[in-house]
Amino acid sequence: MFADRAKVLIRSGKGGDGHVSFRREKYIPDGGPDGGDGGKGGDVIFEIDDGETTLIDYRHKRKFSAGDGEPGGKRRCHGKNGGDLILKVPAGTVIKEAGSEKVIADMSGENRRQVILKGGRGGFGNMHFATPTMQAPKYAQPGQEAQEVEVLLELKMIADVGLVGFPNVGKSTFLSRVTNAAPKIANYHFTTLSPNLGVVDMNGGGFVLADIPGLIEGASEGAGLGYEFLRHIERTKIMIHVVDAASTEGRDPIEDVYKINNELKAYRADLSERKQVIAANKLDVLADDLQDGEDSPLRRLKKEFEPKGIPVFGISAVSGQGVTELLRCVQKMLQELPAETTVFAPEYDPQEHFTGKSLPFSVVKSAEENNTYIVEGPRIERMLGYTNLESEKGFRFFQNFLRENGILDQLEALGIQEGDTVCIYDLQFDYYKE
Questions:
Q1: CA of 184: how far to CAs of 158, 164, 181, 411, in Å?
Q2: N or C: which terminus of the chain carries fewer CB neighbours within 10 A?
Q3: What is the number of alpha carbons within 13 Å of residue 396 lying toward its C-beta?
Q4: What's the rounded Cα separation, in Å, for the pair 233 and 92?
Q5: In whole angstroms, what is the distance from residue 432 CA to residue 415 CA?
Q6: All residues at 6 or more sequence positions from 412 whose CB lies less than 8 Å from its CB, including other chains
Q7: Three-class secondary structure of residue 33 per DSSP
């Protein structure tokens, strides 16, 4: 089966923890803190590989992780950064957040490389936290946590023109005649099990043509294989609607056009409004008097759709009859449309959902005094310097600071009970849960 859709879990690297150590050398008393910083975690990067045409590499492996940063060391040694993870995808791959299916990035056009998840920042070692009032800090900053998100990868072919229509109307035969593509062709329903791309070479400029596997009525609701490939129509500027003018399977070609347009509209409202050209195929099967007679299928199609601005061409994909005229019409229509490829705008930024930051503070239970907990850190010290705890407003601000920065959560994780003592530098508080 053609692999144009995959769901994978990606994880950036965790930042390495900062190190706590003190310089201890002979003849150098009070050497001070010398703990080094942790290394940065690796990023998760998606990159276009022009040699790839499917997402098969993501069908059998579902989890991908960048490297973690290494912890810092003594003597101000910096931890090694984690390695980036580079994931190669074919051009046209749209990366979505799996839960909401909102677009994170569209790997097409000029966007050939994009960082999707950033690695965690490495934590500062204790050498950064010495102050005049705290010359021997016994804590370091932990590394920032890794980011993890499940993404949906969808390949939406980058083609100027798409061939649409019911199964067995001759799309694959048409594609093989006008391009260098070599699709499998047989007289069975759904013989095309994957989209095929080909380049139409013409004087004055060619274009890329995609054969979209046969749709059936109800495809937009999941019926038939055509549903699996509707997404490949989304980037096309023009659709060539191939119909069986000879009605070899008993269907009316006019009804076929309306049915397929209804499926396109149900899948995505604007698709049915794209420029269309109707290719009335299999004229070679009709008798001469039915090919262009007064009651011929071709005349009926022209009468129904050309007043609506949709050109109709009678063709035979087998003999080549009428094909050149159809291609020239499509070429002229393309020249009148903007040259830019359709690119899907981002709707979801993973970074906005990972706002937690590792703050430089420590929360520990005292080893010397029972039921006593010690909270320290440079940001806490700075906050105390500009907060008047004797006022009700200042004390409420102080409580909110402890809550918002996760300090109260850490105290509870250590087992603090109501009435226990919390020491923050020269201040002591009895803990009571709100």
A1: 21, 17, 10, 67
A2: C
A3: 3
A4: 12
A5: 13
A6: none
A7: strand
Q: What is the DSSP string of 126-183?
A: GGGG-BTTBSS----PPPPPP-EEEEEEEE----SEEEE-STTSSHHHHHHHHSS---
CB atoms closer than 10 angstroms to residue 125: 29
117 Ramachandran zone, left/alpha/beta (phi>0; psi -120 to 50): beta
The answer for residues whose C-beta is within 8 angstroms of residue 84's C-beta and 6 or more apart is: 42, 43, 44, 45, 66, 67, 119
DSSP assigned state of 367: S
